[in-house]
């Protein structure tokens, strides 16, 4: 065994036993060894493949939820995710975006609402990206904003805006007309959102830090649409972030479910009577999806209008695992 082999094993243990982040341990190895491109690819592949072997407690949860389908789901979660691109229609057209991607050698394929490009592709190094023409966003994630029945001039509350991926998509669907209140407790995420909005040519977003429960209470019954994209286990996006399960425990899933329930309850009150609340979770666990919504509907004056779920599989254009429910507040 070489020293590199030993250090790769230690890096794997740092993720699976000590909870360190995958990107961090890989960067440390690259810094220490300064490998050529082929060696770097081999190092990354060996570590990622080992980390994809998720903890047994999570495997058991998935088997309990999906029975005979679990084996196929677990296999799909170990695969590479496609690269999906959302065209920013505030800055360009689909035709010009396709031409720019082809000129860059990206080999784009047109799907119903987005593009998928072949790997590898340095999107973030392209001038067209810096000019705000594109966002890298999974096809299932894009489907969330498309489920909101948005129109120009609406007032929208994004209750868990984060870095703003869905916020910017909503702004584009609204033609940059109306207002989006983007809430998040983390100032650094809202700072990133501001930068991304400027690049995307979005001016209708108002980032607002959640400093207390009053931040949300002041928005009671003011919004035509409310997006509640809750913090979750991330089990639907393991293809992109295979180290996620190593930062979770079986007990922490219950803690997340309680947090989601509280966020949904508080945020849903921002909707006007007759307005829509869209709940989204990038989890494949039922307790973070349909079970959460059934509990909410039993206790709240809302009606379920529609719901959908996506599951990663080995199809060429398979999106991430998501659950989404569209709820209407009773008049």
TrEMBL record:
Keywords (A to Z) from UniProt: Methyltransferase, RNA-binding, S-adenosyl-L-methionine, Transferase
Family: Belongs to the class I-like SAM-binding methyltransferase superfamily. RsmB/NOP family.
Native organism: Candidatus Kapaibacterium thiocyanatum
Residue intervals of the SAM-dependent MTase RsmB/NOP-type domain: 73-331
Name recorded for this polypeptide: SAM-dependent MTase RsmB/NOP-type domain-containing protein
Binding site for S-adenosyl-L-methionine: 184, 229
Entries under Gene3D superfamilies matching the protein: Vaccinia Virus protein VP39 (3.40.50.150)
Alphabetical list of Pfam families matching this protein: Methyltr_RsmB-F, RsmF-B_ferredox
PROSITE patterns: SAM_MT_RSMB_NOP
Active site: 282
Keyword RNA-binding listed: yes
């Amino acid at each position: 065994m070489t020293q590199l082999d030993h250090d790769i094993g230690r890096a794997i243990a740092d993720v699976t036993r000590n909870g360190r982040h995958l990107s961090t341990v890989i960067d440390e190895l690259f810094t220490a060894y300064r490998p050529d491109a082929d060696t770097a690819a081999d190092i990354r592949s060996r570590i990622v493949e080992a980390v994809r072997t998720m903890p047994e407690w999570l495997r058991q949860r998935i088997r309990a939820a999906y029975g005979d389908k679990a084996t196929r789901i677990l296999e799909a979660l170990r695969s590479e995710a496609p690269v999906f691109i959302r065209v920013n229609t505030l800055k360009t057209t689909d035709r010009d975006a396709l031409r720019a991607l082809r000129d860059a050698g990206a080999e784009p394929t047109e799907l119903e609402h987005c593009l998928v490009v072949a790997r590898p592709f340095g999107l973030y190094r392209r001038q067209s990206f810096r000019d705000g023409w594109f966002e890298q966003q999974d096809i299932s994630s894009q489907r969330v904003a498309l489920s909101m029945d948005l129109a120009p001039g609406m007032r929208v509350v994004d209750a868990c805006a984060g870095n703003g991926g869905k916020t910017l998509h909503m702004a584009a669907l609204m033609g940059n007309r109306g207002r989006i209140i983007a809430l998040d407790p983390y100032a650094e995420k809202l700072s990133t959102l501001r930068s991304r909005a400027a690049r995307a040519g979005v001016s209708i977003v108002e980032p607002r830090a959640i400093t207390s429960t009053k931040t949300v209470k002041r928005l009671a019954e003011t919004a035509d649409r409310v997006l509640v994209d809750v913090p979750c286990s991330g089990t639907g996006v393991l293809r992109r972030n295979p180290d996620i399960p190593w930062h979770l425990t079986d007990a922490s899933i219950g803690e997340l479910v309680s947090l989601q329930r509280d966020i949904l309850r508080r945020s849903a009150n921002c909707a006007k009577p007759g307005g829509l609340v869209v709940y989204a979770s990038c989890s494949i666990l039922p307790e973070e999806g349909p079970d959460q919504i059934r509990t909410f509907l039993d206790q709240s004056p809302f009606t379920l209008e529609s719901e959908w779920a996506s599951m990663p599989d080995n199809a060429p254009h398979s999106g991430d695992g998501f659950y989404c429910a569209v709820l209407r507040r009773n008049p």
